[in-house]
Design a protein that fits this description.
The protein is an all-alpha fold and 66 residues long. The chain contains 3 helices and no strands. The model has no long low-confidence stretch (mean pLDDT 86).
Length: 66
């Protein structure tokens, strides 16, 4: 019973970040770093300040039309 609860809590934390990383253009597996003790504090900062591939693609598209 405890294992099921732990898995549900882990899924509740990892799943949203998996989707966010994927929409940002990165691999969703980056969200698994949330399971590690110190890196779980750093992951939101990496996500916030890292250059997203989606931004690079959009900039490339806008440069073509300029």
């Amino acid at each position: 019973m405890n294992a099921i609860i732990i898995l549900l809590v882990v899924a509740a934390f990892v799943a949203p970040y998996w989707i966010i990383w994927t929409r940002a253009g990165h691999h969703g597996a980056w969200s698994l770093f949330l399971l590690l003790p110190v890196t779980n504090l750093l992951v939101p900062y990496v996500l916030a300040f890292k250059r997203w591939p989606v931004e690079v693609k959009e900039k490339a598209k806008s440069d073509v039309f300029d």
